[in-house]
Structure formats: C-alpha cells, structure tokens
C-alpha cells in the first residue's frame, strides 16, 4: 500500500472527521493521522476481518489526540481525506473505534462538525 493510499484510507476513521489546509500548523498533523490509519484502508472498503495493525493505529492516534485542538485536527483531516476515497463504507468507519476498544468524543460521519469536537 502506498503512502497516498494510506492518506486516503484515513477516512477510515472515518468521515473518521474542514479546514482548507490538510496539515495542522501546531499539534497533530494530517500526516500523523493518515500514517496511523494506513492499515485500515482495505477493511474500510471491503469489510471482513479487522487487521490488528488497524487497531494499533487507531489506538495510537487516539493516544496522540490529547487536546481538543488535536481532536479537531484529526477530525478535519479524516473528513477531508474521506471525500476523496471511493468505496469507503461509512458504517464500518463509524464502528471502528468501538471494534478497537476505544471511545472517541464525536461520531465518525461525513456530517460531523469538526469545529464542535472537544
């Protein structure tokens, strides 16, 4: 899988989540978000067995998103990237945090307002 596919896969967490710039000036960057979620791409498109590497990335990203600004940036990145990936199953994306045993303070959805994420 190439890095660009990984970036696109980030949506996995989907609609993981729109600022005009994909990278954050401070805090969590879109590159960190996409890298963390690269192992989720195939699952988000085709379902099936959830790869362990995907949950490791989801948990890593959750650990990096410590502040409200970090969470807003992760949301914005996911939302931006998700719009450019064909075939993403948003239902699978919304369920990803729970399947990986974590809780996030917002719903993963194309309609999520990232500016309200705390």
TrEMBL record:
<dbReference type="InterPro" id="IPR016140">
    <property type="entry name" value="Bifunc_inhib/LTP/seed_store"/>
</dbReference>
<feature type="signal peptide">
    <location>
        <begin position="1"/>
        <end position="27"/>
    </location>
</feature>
<dbReference type="InterPro" id="IPR000528">
    <property type="entry name" value="Plant_nsLTP"/>
</dbReference>
<keyword id="KW-0732">Signal</keyword>
<comment type="function">
    <text>Plant non-specific lipid-transfer proteins transfer phospholipids as well as galactolipids across membranes. May play a role in wax or cutin deposition in the cell walls of expanding epidermal cells and certain secretory tissues.</text>
</comment>
<protein>
    <recommendedName>
        <fullName>Non-specific lipid-transfer protein</fullName>
    </recommendedName>
</protein>
<keyword id="KW-1015">Disulfide bond</keyword>
<dbReference type="Pfam" id="PF00234">
    <property type="entry name" value="Tryp_alpha_amyl"/>
</dbReference>
<keyword id="KW-0446">Lipid-binding</keyword>
<comment type="similarity">
    <text>Belongs to the plant LTP family.</text>
</comment>
<dbReference type="GO" id="GO:0006869">
    <property type="term" value="P:lipid transport"/>
</dbReference>
<keyword id="KW-0813">Transport</keyword>
<feature type="domain" description="Bifunctional inhibitor/plant lipid transfer protein/seed storage helical">
    <location>
        <begin position="30"/>
        <end position="114"/>
    </location>
</feature>
<dbReference type="GO" id="GO:0008289">
    <property type="term" value="F:lipid binding"/>
</dbReference>
<dbReference type="InterPro" id="IPR036312">
    <property type="entry name" value="Bifun_inhib/LTP/seed_sf"/>
</dbReference>
